[in-house]
Specification:
Length: 107
């Protein structure tokens, strides 16, 4: 856990990708980061923590949450958002607020 950089650089050495070691390349996918850092069990827990609230929000017609989480899930493909303070603040505060948001009915 937490030693993904060493594993990644060992993989770079194995594949003779010395430019990646020299430039200190990292992983740019939140999904790959979790998989490298926490293994398959951690990855399944991570996916469950993302998909279960999304399914619940979809079933309860909380479409604002579904849209925002869709954007977050897509952005996880290309960035390790939770490695930055702004990403943690966004996910920790805005996502739970939107999950509990109930759409007002127009009369």
């Amino acid at each position: 856990t937490g030693d993904y950089k060493n594993k990644l650089h060992n993989s770079f050495k194995k594949n003779e990708f010395y430019y990646g070691i020299k430039r200190n390349f990292g992983i740019h996918s939140m999904y790959m980061y979790v998989l490298f850092s926490f293994g398959m069990v951690g990855f399944v827990i991570f996916l469950a923590s993302l998909l279960l609230p999304l399914i619940d929000a979809f079933n309860s017609t909380n479409y604002l949450f579904v849209i925002i989480m869709g954007i977050v899930l897509i952005s996880y493909l290309t960035e390790t958002i939770l490695n930055r303070y702004t990403g943690v603040v966004f996910v920790a505060f805005l996502v739970p607020f939107l999950f509990n948001h109930k759409a007002s009915k127009l009369s």
